[in-house]
Write a structure and sequence with these properties.
- This protein has about 80 residues and is mostly helical.
- About 75% of the residues lie in helices and about 0% in strands.
């Protein structure tokens, strides 16, 4: 196992959540990565069940919003 690998933390989840380019380009992968990271954080004991549920809810809402927002942006600026 590599020594330089560090376990994820809540800041890593937040950085991923704020990665708008990833969210727009690959909403399903983005969602799955957020879910996996939240599961890892819970499994490590870095967050409790309530925090895990909150992270999952935020990821789910973001995933639900992504198609509509991406369509709206494309209609607003088709050359983007």
């Amino acid at each position: 196992m590599r020594e330089d690998l560090t376990p994820p933390d809540l800041d890593a989840w937040q950085r991923l959540f704020e990665d708008e380019a990833y969210w727009q380009q690959s909403p399903d992968s983005y969602y799955m990565d957020l879910q996996r990271l939240a599961d890892d954080l819970l499994g490590q004991g870095a967050i409790d069940l309530e925090q895990w549920q909150a992270l999952k809810a935020r990821a789910e809402q973001s995933h639900k919003d992504s198609p509509a927002i991406n369509v709206t942006r494309e209609l607003d600026d088709p050359d983007a």
